[in-house]
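task queued by scheduler; priority normal; single chain, no ligands, no partner chains; default sampling; output format set to C-alpha cells
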Amino acid sequence: MRLSILLQAAGVAGLLSQAAHASGLPAFEQLDINRDGITTEAEIRDWIGALHAGLDTDGDGRLSVREITAGGHDAATAEAIVSNNDLDRSGHLSVDELSMLLPVLFGMADKNRDAILERAEYDAALSTLPRR
C-alpha cells in the first residue's frame, strides 16, 4: 500500500512540479501566499486549487487528459496522471483528487517535521522531481 501511495504521489508531484517550473516564478514564492518566508499545507492546498482552476479550461470542475496535455504534459504522462489519481474512475481529476496526496507530499518534504516548509526544505524536495 505504501508503494502505491508513493507512486500516486509521484504522478501528482510531477504535475505540480512542472506547473511550478513552467510559471516563470520561483515555486516557493507562489506557495508562500502570505509572504512570511514559510509555507503551510493550507497555502499549498490553496495553490493546488488555483492550479486546478487554471488548467480546467472548460470550467467543469474536473481535469481531463486533454486539459493536462494542454498544460504542458505529453499525452502518455497526462494519461498516467489521470489513471493513477482518478479515485472515482470518472476519467477526470477533481480538485479533491488532486489534493488527496497533499499530506503525503508535504510530509515527504517537511524533513524536520515542524508542519511548515521553509524555502530550503521545499527547494530540496522540488530538486528531486523531474523537470520537463
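post-processing summary
- Residues 2-22 form the longest helix (21 residues).
- The two ends are 28 Å apart (CA to CA).
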